[in-house]
Amino acid sequence: NAGVMQNPRHLVRRRGQEARLRCSPMKGHSHVYWYRQLPEEGLKFMVYLQKENIIDESGMPKERFSAEFPKEGPSILRIQQVVRGDSAAYFCASSPVSPGTDTQYFGPGTRLTVL
Amino acid sequence: GEDVEQSLFLSVREGDSSVINCTYTDSSSTYLYWYKQEPGAGLQLLTYIFSNMDMKQDQRLTVLLNKKDKHLSLRIADTQTGDSAIYFCAETRNTDKLIFGTGTRLQVFP
Question: Nearest CA to CA, how far is B103 from chain A (Å)?
């Protein structure tokens, strides 16, 4: 059973470009979470999604950031018009059932560098 | 508040025990977790404890939970150089998200 997969592992963008980060949850998992880790810091929750639904986006910046988890295909975290402050590691996690009762398993992360 | 705090660094000699501490603020925490992050890698789940427990042991790992003081610790017995990493504690309440601590960088020297 493959773990949580994220791609690309490394992404370089110039200021003003768009970044698209992909996450494929573990097989059988229908809950996806995105976290951001700034350099030398812990992880901060961004958004929690189930298939076709955003459940909690309380950690998402109000502008430029969006996330989706379509019926088919991976979850996508999209950052429009990137700025240098968006440089970070973005981690996706998945869990199979209701949160709080099942642990979240993390992918290897996408390291975004904005030039 | 949502603060989960850890000391930043810990240095131990190979073969000794390591104890990594974590304090949290919300008494409604339901599950508490320990994750390990090696350089350039994702987070590996090490162990977790439900809030109605006070201890859990899993091979070289022992988790102690003092709910009264909101204090969680991870003890690694017979620490090896491969244990060098950043260790994060995290909590969930009755919500969906993990609240992470700042991470403790463990360095094991020969």
Answer: 6
